[in-house]
Amino acid sequence: MSRSATATLSALGVGAAGELTADPAGVLPVRGELADPLPRGGLRRGSTVSVRGSTSLLLALLAEATAAGCWAAIAGLPRCGALAAAELGVAVHRLALVPRPGRDQSQVGRTVAALLDGFDLVAVGSPVSPSAARKLSARARHRRSVLLPLTDWPGADLALHAESGSWTGLGRGHGLLRERELVVRATGRGTAARPRRTTLLLPARDGGVAAHVAEPGHVAEPGHVAEPGHGLTRRPPTRGPARSSAPSRAPAPKPLRRNARLAVHRA
Amino acid sequence: MAGPASRRSPRTGPVASRRPGEPEVRLSSYTLVVWCADWPVVAASAQAALPPHVPAAVVRGGEVVACSATARAQGVRRGQRKRAAQGRCPELVLFDHDDARDARAFEPVAQAVEELAPGIEVVRPGLIALDARGPVGYHGSPERAAELLVDHVAARVGVEAQVGFADGLFAATLAAHRGVVVPPGGAAEFLAPLGVHELDQPAEHRADRAELVDLLRRLGLRTLGAFAAVPERDVASRFGRQAVLAHRMARGLEERPRARRTPSVELAVTGSFDPPVDRVDAAAFAARGLAEELHARLVDRGLACTRLGILATTEAGEELRRVWRCAHPLTPQGIADRVRWQLDGWLTGAAPTTGPTASPTASPTASPTAGVHLLRLDPEEVVDATALQPGLWPGAGQEGGESAERAARAAVHVQGLLGAQAVLTPVPRGGRGPVERMRLVPWGDEPTPTDDPDLPWPGRLPAPSPATVFAEPEPVALLDGSGGDVGVTGYAELTVPPSRIVHAGRTRRVLAWAGPWPVDERWWDGHTAVRAARLQVLGATSNGEELAFLLIRTGGRWAVEGVYD
């Protein structure tokens, strides 16, 4: 699209593709089941959400937003598995990796600040000083980006803690890793003050995220409302409007092929 | 790099209307000559910053080869001994002869002429020949073209030049000496009354020609016309091959065709700062002006820049250099941004100047010790602007839109801070391991797929893939019940069931495993051949926390290729 055409559309109140589809309410969408631990059913623009305990959880959080046209950057995570990201649904051509964002904390801070200027979602794996962390959070608020630190972060609006549960699919000498239970605890401030706890399948059988079907023996936490028929998961109220803009969505990127059935292994 | 002039089709000159009865002349031999009188003296005086009224001469081997007009007025002549010349004119300034100096000083003149008329040939320093058809046709008449050329050279370089038109280089040179326009076909007529000494141009330093002129004089052939009247056959039989060439020149024919020169396009722009720039905001201001100048130059020539070299020289003499690559042509804003970010990186002392920053061993150079005082933007790779349509590369990473533009600018900014290799974007490719199935290309590079990921890759593990991968697999111990290593047989079976896995100092009980799946890649190539086996292992700590690993065994050792975290 030419610059002038973009300008005209902005004048009419129509944003560029990413903004049009992704956040009518200033909330970036996440894949359905991940919406449960998040207070507004998505990643609110300008907020800081720390993600601890699971790289898969971080990648899954990026998936829906990048597929809808947002741009994501991951800084300071040199061992990030880009293939897993693609399998979880991340549009990897809108993903930038900065494996080594700087030699020292101040340079990391500069790099992350530069990334926040342009990317909608910025994950940070390198530690920064508490004062720099507050500055970066303020910058994310100002730029309306989402900051996703993977370390302890003072002033995070929401903290997600993942605890890896049990895997299924693997036997003693046979099978394949297939799916895993992941318990996500969310604590935060404001609307997120009430702790939430959700059990997901991440990765699920199809490579993505799925709701965890309640099994006998699992007990909901006190205060957690379990809807009948939905196991331990709930549908957040904001999810409806966030999805309602789907008809005007920009051409979705070609989904990456999953090759679940390609490998033929020895028995 | 091909200059634009080489692509431009030659201007079609006018077809000179020929009156009936006029001799037919090959139009291509009609030549325009730009001549600068006493060029060795002009060049030497310019280099020595000598005012023009001071008499000066250039000597070689104790003999004057060129002198200025003021020296000539006082009796200095070409060919005089140095002592004799100094005797005539005591205040004469003498310079040694230096071909390189003459050529160097003449280059701006050549460029000035080239700006008005492409396709020039520098015959020697001081003399330029070109096809007269273009300038004559474009400007309407030879007189008008000559006037423009003389004015332009004087305005651009401050050098006095004379222009002449005639058929053939020799006649045109003599015409330029006299500043006359010889009409096409009139060369023989023009040359006939001139003395045979004109055949010996002193600037050419041809001893054989001087002998010939002397001989012709002694034979009584005192004019070129008289020499031309001698049949060519007799000249050839009496005087030899060199004399035949001279005879052709005397008749107004071409000695040889001209060789056109392709103009070298100087695209780089240089800015110098006084006082030196050591603050980022001042650098940004400087960058903007330079960027606009560079862009204007490129646009003038219909070019677009895809590789931009930024070179900064600090006051202390340090040179910093970085080349930026970009799949999209650079806009003025894009150039300015890159220069600003680059200066930002240098001045804040963050960026190494060379080498991929992705490798931790790359040693960053120290920040410059002084401010930047010279900045040069050098378009290292340019393409024809019309050939570069963004639509040529549709697909991943090339989409438009405001958010894409913002992200691209931020990524390029980070590249300015950390180096071009610091920002990567994954591109799917074919392969079997989780690392090799994603190629990380620097942001801005063309994401060309190397191996087709859609082909069948037997032995590839299905989803899910590990979320944490190790580009360099980390060693790990996989032990059986008695503490011995678990091996893989040639039939791709484990020798014993594993019972413990020790990774990063922690021992985990093995709950389950699957595999091993053998990989035997590129066995035909000794250097890149891989023979390995992969194994999925689920370990649990004493408190029941589960962690799944993807192990690979090569050369009899287990290593962790990925962790499913």
Q: What's the SSE blueprint?
A:
The complex is a heterodimer of chains A (267) and B (565).
Chain A: H1 3-11, H2 17-22, E1 27-29, E2 42-44, E3 49-52, H3 55-67, E4 72-75, H4 82-87, E5 95-98, H5 105-118, E6 121-124, H6 130-143, E7 146-149, E8 158-170, E9 175-188, E10 196-201, E11 210-211, H7 239-244
Parallel strand pairs in A: 3-8, 4-5, 4-6, 6-7
Antiparallel strand pairs in A: 1-2, 8-9, 9-10, 10-11
Chain B: H1 4-7, E1 30-35, H2 39-48, E2 56-60, E3 63-67, H3 69-73, H4 82-88, E4 93-96, H5 99-116, E5 120-124, E6 127-131, H6 133-139, H7 142-157, E7 162-167, H8 169-178, H9 187-191, H10 207-219, H11 224-229, H12 232-239, H13 241-250, E8 269-277, H14 280-300, E9 303-314, E10 319-325, H15 332-347, E11 372-384, H16 402-418, E12 424-428, E13 438-442, E14 468-475, E15 477-479, E16 500-503, E17 506-521, E18 530-540, E19 546-554, E20 557-564
Parallel strand pairs in B: 2-4
Antiparallel strand pairs in B: 1-6, 1-7, 2-3, 5-6, 8-11, 9-10, 9-11, 12-13, 14-20, 15-16, 16-17, 17-18, 18-19, 19-20
Helix pairs in contact in B: 2-5, 5-7, 6-7, 12-13, 14-15, 15-16
Biased composition (Basic residues) (chain A): 255-267
Region (Disordered) (chain A): 218-267
Biased composition (Low complexity) (chain A): 240-251
Spatial strand order of the main sheet of chain A: 3-8-9-10-11
Mean pLDDT metric of chain A: 73
Identify the CATH class of the largest domain in chain B. Alpha Beta
Characterize the largest beta sheet of chain B: strand count, sense, and whether it forms a barrel. Answer: 7 strands, antiparallel
Named at the architecture level, the CATH assignment of the largest domain in chain B is 3-Layer(aba) Sandwich
Q: In CATH terms, what is the architecture of chain A?
A: 3-Layer(aba) Sandwich
Biased composition (Low complexity) (chain A): 240-251
Region (Disordered) (chain A): 218-267
Biased composition (Basic residues) (chain A): 255-267
